[in-house]
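Notes to self after the call with IL:
- keep both proteins in one doc
- input above output, always
- annotate only the second one for now

Protein 1:
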Amino acid sequence: MNKQAIIQAEADYVLHTYNRPDIVFSHGEGMYLYDSDGNQYLDFTSGIAVTSLGHSDPDWVTAVTQQAAQLTHVSNLFHTAPQAQLAQKLVQNSFADKVFFCNSGAEANEAALKFARKVGKSHHEDKTKIVAFSGGFHGRTMGSLSATYKAQYREPFAPLVPGVTFLPFNDLPAAQAAIDDDTCAVIVEPIQGEGGVNPATAEFLQGLRAACNAHHALLIFDEVQCGLGRTGTLWAYQPFGVSPDIMTLAKPLAGGLPIGAALVTQAVAEVIQPGDHGSTFAAGPLVCAAANVVFDKINQQPFLQAVQENGAYLKHRLQTLELEQIVDVRGQGLLLGVALNQPAAPIMAAARAKGLLILTAGDDVLRLAPPLIVSKGEIDTAVTTIAACLEESS
């Protein structure tokens, strides 16, 4: 099929839940994507913080190819080595004692909320309240959507799961007043992605931990977008000096194949029994073979140090642009938001026309989430392109 035939087929047969530009990507290599017309794009989206090793990483390709030729799927009725190996790595390199696997970030958060409800009910029947925050995004399934803040995502599908209370993000007194003995869980992103790339403060997360401890509630960290090296540490929560009871992962874990995970403490694991939750496709040998490669490469101090250094360089380059359109530059590592005093979508489109792929996070924030292998030279190219787009918009 040629480009126009592909675009027309999608218009005819694919449910219209995304507005896509008229580009058909054909292949990718490292930091770059290529379309069917032969155009090259510097990728600062990573498929929404997914392809952390870039496109077509040779070790990833080898692992997936070899595993596909050996064993792809048996369901979770049986054991496989890649799943066991991945689970061991996640647990031994985090706060957690056990891991539940699924297929996406929404499913991981759905599992976390289900687990929290069951743990809460083990204390008393009415301990079902969930606290979430303004700007939070946790997915689009009915449970995860119920804890997602943006009204335009939630309202068309109401009534949702009851018992969710929304509070202002980074407002510790409001959280302390709301978290009570009926609260089963508090769910929060250490760095909000979709909500505008808003970092939590250490005081806020530490205060949430203390409030959860005081009321026997579970603290859930959603690291679907900000976890696994994106901020320059293996997990985004680590610099805050706070550990959760449950942490959700997904986007980057298998380098582009669908996977999600909910990491839990032993206290949570003891309440969950066979039959409480499940997933046919979760953590099959193919996706786990990919995830083992991704985890092993990212979980190296030189790799994480490079993310810290390049993230700081990107932030500095953006902060020193003398452009009146830039209101703020925020975030950590290679998850940064550029807040503007104008709509962000036209700048994203203008950058794409110049061969740079970036994201938005809300109406007026540009979101930058390049593959973690980005170089300073590629950062210079991206910043120069963004600056040109902003200058031309004035």
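Protein 2 (the one to annotate):
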Amino acid sequence: MVKMFRFQIFLQVVLSGFGLSVSSQDLQVSGFTKELNVKFTTLDEKKIEKGIEILTEAEKTLSEAKATYDGLSDLEKKEKVSDTYVKSLNKIREASEKYKEGYAVIYTVFKEKCEEFWNNMKKVQHFAAGVEKGKYYERQAGKQKAMSAQRRDQVLWTDRFEYAVLKLKEANELDLLIIRDQGRALQVYTDYPVEYNYGWENDVTLEEIEEIYRNPAVNEPPEDIYATVNSDTKVDPMLREEIIFKVQIAAHTVPITGELLRLIYKGTMPIDMIYEDNWYKYSIGRYHNFDEANKVLQECHVRKAFIVAYQGGKKLTIQEALGLLEQNPQ
């Protein structure tokens, strides 16, 4: 018999200093009935259960990482080079990838059902007018997916345990929002052509959505989207000890959507994002040679793009970077 469930995972992760404390309470599934009223097949339920199993494994791996890190001496934590430190860092990375996989399995159940709705509309050549709230929540889920992926990448790149813990926590919170918003979209599509006042927490009204669509993202990026941070910014844990040149294409105090980034940079190079001193900074390339970075700068065709330099995560002026390279060629 088909059951109606609502997914709700209670992951109690509390940062203590820069360590991590995980509740002994297991991951739980209370069902999908509290917020959603959607029918799921037995196969859907099994997929969700599989996702929960993976998330439970992820929590166990996270606990192991924390226990390993707690066993380190202060010197080992500071130097970040001992085998045990590397082991704890690898465990964090492993946990993050497991969380990513588990959340993705559950999200896919919602996503496929939403796609099924649109495929059915296409078959009957119907455009399903009046599901703007569903479209809105799907777009929100898409934006949050991009942000979560960036956090997961930061977990893989950093050599700082405490920073990896922070980014893993942020990614998990985003993934829960992704599932929530995709589920809300599914509920709207399921109820079509009727739309209800669902009473969801932090729900948006149709009037608010109409206002959003009436004033879409600007076609020409605003001036402050190209602003940059001060040269005395905090250490960037994403970068290694060598001097690295990057081409910064944009920065903002709020995340920039993928759509807007494509307006800014139309090339094919991967775009890096780091969050530093309350700024989201976007750049392309990582070069040990200034001339290589300058070549990319000239070819990227981004208005107001410029070259930035880092050493050991600390931002340098270009003059400082070139002077250091002259003294100590890499």
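Annotation: Confidence is low (pLDDT under 50) at residues 1-33. The beta strands are 13-16, 19-22, 243-252, 271-276, 279-287, 306-311, 314-316.
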